[in-house]
Amino acid sequence: MLIPPAIVGDGYWKKGYFHTIANIPLTEEEKKLDFGFYKLHFKGNFFCKETGELLDKEPKILGMHGITTISGIGLEIERELIINPSLLEENTRTSQSLTVAGVPRNQWHVPDNTGSSLHEKLLDEQL
């Protein structure tokens, strides 16, 4: 299962929830991109790099800056499971991870949306 990129702590790997499958270096073109993030802060909002370093101007490519919590990752995983419930089949890594994490099977709330036109559309839009 792949989910969108997120800034997270290393606990996900230490606990075995995440596994690195590849690390692809940036191309020279990617290194030159004018990108950054907009950070909401109680002392004032600002533009910054992925490291949190301040930028003096708004970048051409802009995203939101922030660390994703376990709840944020959980919501992304839940979304993927709603789109494709077969990811929770008995012998999948997902079911094994839930079992190891101690989540009882009666709390695996994943409706079968096979054939649902809405969910088929959502899946088609991802491909």
Order of SSEs: HHEEEHHH
Q: Write down the overall geometry.
A: extended
User: Which consecutive residue ranges, at least 5 long each, have pLDDT under 50?
Assistant: none
Largest beta-sheet characterization: 3 strands, mixed
Radius of gyration: 18 Å
Strand content: 5-15%
Helix proportion:
25-40%
Structural class by helix and strand composition: alpha+beta
**Number of continuous helical runs:** 5
Report the count of strand segments: 3
Q: Taking all residues together, what is the mean pLDDT? A: 75
Major β-sheet strand ordering: 2-1-3
Distance between the termini: 13 Å
Account of the 3D structure:
It is a single chain. With 127 residues, the chain is α+β, with helices and mostly antiparallel strands. The chain has 5 helices and 3 strands. Strands 2-1-3 form a 3-stranded mixed beta sheet, with no helix packed on it. Strand 1 and strand 2 form a beta hairpin. The longest helix has 14 residues, at 70-83. The radius of gyration is 18 Å and the shape is extended.
Strand-helix topology:
Layout: H1 11-14, H2 28-31, E1 35-39, E2 46-48, E3 61-64, H3 70-83, H4 93-100, H5 117-126
Parallel strand pairs: 1-3
Antiparallel strand pairs: 1-2
From the structure above, extract its key features.
127 residues; alpha+beta; extended
In short:
Helix content is 31%, strand content 9%.
